[in-house]
């Protein structure tokens, strides 16, 4: 039996998602996951964006099983392997070249946080500057460097030590529609008495995942780029959550036309839920000396194999991208319908592409709605400063019928919450 707090009587109290979704899961396929008792759930959490192609995609599984059956090396530090060569070729031919992106690829340790650490170090080394500017509500991971550029005070508090080297800037819209957050940034940079040291880089998510699905507009991103160029500040786009197709294009910044100096990718990069992270950098700033940012597990060949298969399956043409955009429009319709039905509970719809959600007026409502959804067989999480944003993270490969089924459960959960509140008020 599952114990709510300490799984198996042993698991540390640090575990978190399992508190909201306490089932013991046994099998998963596509957008569906089954618990030990055979109960089926729809998965709109998708490994927090690590399962963009759903669970256990058949083609990826076949590629992985073939590689294992052929005794392909599983781990290889940073030795050269055929699996790594294939990944570099396929990523280059299908992702980088068609988008005119000339990047070198750094294979980091397997977590997103490690890619962020590498990006921060590289930006500092390449510019000789110390601070990195970061944005309100940004989320970049749990290691100390990544945490220093993360906003969330609950996570920051876990550090237990100083988080230094970051300068905080307001994200687009943070101070309301009338406030130009980039004019503020520019003023800080140009006023010799602002007390703001010119940073090595800015790090940002084009759509803030954990921070509440806040979207940076194309115009804002372009202006940010021109300010950064004028001051020799590097742009790091952390595309760990918003990348790999989540916004409807492979990279979240494609529509804006900006060309980041450094990009971090992880979560759905392997396509199969296997740990795998990379840092992309303009070749001119690749100033590392050998082994300067090291790590044992930089050669997860199983992940190289599934990542290669995923790119070949989904990214050889625009078809998948267009299908994701069509699916995203359907999500928008569903969310608009829910919003229209519950104006007293809904503040607004947020996000873009397949990373959309609903900001509730009350965080308690958001919590209650996701609890009701779970009771009805839908796994769906919250984000935002108060966990007030219900975050629809369906797989990008989900069928329209399963998407509609999940959105129906979500809509029903809003109805139940509204009824419950009406009863409470009566
Ligand atoms: C998840 C995430 C990270 C951290 O990745 P981990 O694998 O959890 O270390 C960093 N940045 C963003 C935007 C993320 O969503």
Q: What labels would you give this structure?
A:
single chain; Aspartate Aminotransferase, domain 1; alpha/beta; seven-stranded mixed β-sheet; 13 helices; 17 strands; 426 residues; binds pyridoxal-5'-phosphate; four-stranded mixed β-sheet; Aspartate Aminotransferase, domain 2; globular; 2 domains
Task: Provide structural commentary.
38% of the residues lie in helices and 16% in strands. By secondary structure, it is of the alpha/beta class. The protein folds into two domains: 5-56 and 319-425, Aspartate Aminotransferase, domain 1; 59-314, Type I PLP-dependent aspartate aminotransferase-like (Major domain) (Aspartate Aminotransferase, domain 2). A seven-stranded mixed sheet has the order 4-12-11-10-7-5-6, sandwiched between helices. It starts with 16 loop residues before the first helix and ends with a helix. Pyridoxal-5'-phosphate (PLP) binds next to α5.
Please identify the structural class as seen in this structure: alpha/beta
Q: Biggest sheet, strands in spatial order?
A: 4-12-11-10-7-5-6
What is the fourth-level CATH superfamily of the largest domain?
Answer: Type I PLP-dependent aspartate aminotransferase-like (Major domain)
Q: Give the count of structural domains.
A: 2
The assigned CATH architecture of the largest domain is: 3-Layer(aba) Sandwich
The CATH class of the largest domain is Alpha Beta
How big is the Rg? 22 Å
Q: Which ligands occur here?
A: pyridoxal-5'-phosphate
Q: Enumerate the spans where pLDDT stays under 50 for 5 or more consecutive residues.
A: none
């Amino acid at each position: 039996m599952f114990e709510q707090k300490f799984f198996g009587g042993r698991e540390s109290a640090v575990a978190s998602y399992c508190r909201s979704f306490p089932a013991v899961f046994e099998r998963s396929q596509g957008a569906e996951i089954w618990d030990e008792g055979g109960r089926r759930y729809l998965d709109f959490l998708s490994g927090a964006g690590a399962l963009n192609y759903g669970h256990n995609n058949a083609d990826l599984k076949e590629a992985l099983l073939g590689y294992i059956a052929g005794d392909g090396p599983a781990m290889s530090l940073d030795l050269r392997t055929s699996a790594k060569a294939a990944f570099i070729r396929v990523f280059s031919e299908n992702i980088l070249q068609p988008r005119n992106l000339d990047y070198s690829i750094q294979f980091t340790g397997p977590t997103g946080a490690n890619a962020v650490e590498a990006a921060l170090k590289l930006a500092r080394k390449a510019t000789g500057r110390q601070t990195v500017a970061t944005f309100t509500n940004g989320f970049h991971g749990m290691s100390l460097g990544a945490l220093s550029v993360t906003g969330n005070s609950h996570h920051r508090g876990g550090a237990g030590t100083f988080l230094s080297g970051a300068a905080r800037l307001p994200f687009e819209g943070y101070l309301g529609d009338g406030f130009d957050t980039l004019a503020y940034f520019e003023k800080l940079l140009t006023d010799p008495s602002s007390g703001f040291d010119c940073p090595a880089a800015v790090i940002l998510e084009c759509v803030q995942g954990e921070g509440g699905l806040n979207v940076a507009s194309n115009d804002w991103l372009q202006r940010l780029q021109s300010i950064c160029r004028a001051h020799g500040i590097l742009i790091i786009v952390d595309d760990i959550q918003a990348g790999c197709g989540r916004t409807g294009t492979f990279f979240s910044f494609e529509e804006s036309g900006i060309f980041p100096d450094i990009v971090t990718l992880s979560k759905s990069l392997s396509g199969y839920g296997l740990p795998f992270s990379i840092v992309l950098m303009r070749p001119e700033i690749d100033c590392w000396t050998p082994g300067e940012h090291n790590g044992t597990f930089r050669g997860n060949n199983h992940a190289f194999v599934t990542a290669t298969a995923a790119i070949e399956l989904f990214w050889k043409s625009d078809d998948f991208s267009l299908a994701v955009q069509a699916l995203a429009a359907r999500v928008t319709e569903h969310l608009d319908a829910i919003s229209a039905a519950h104006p007293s509970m809904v503040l607004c719809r947020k996000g873009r592409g397949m990373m959309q959600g609903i900001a509730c007026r009350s965080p308690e409502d958001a919590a209650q709605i996701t609890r009701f959804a779970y009771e009805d067989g839908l796994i769906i999480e919250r984000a935002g400063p108060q966990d007030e944003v219900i975050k629809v993270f369906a797989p990008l490969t989900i069928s329209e019928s399963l998407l509609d089924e999940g959105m129906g459960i979500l809509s029903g959960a809003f109805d139940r919450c509204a009824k419950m509140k009406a009863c409470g008020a009566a």
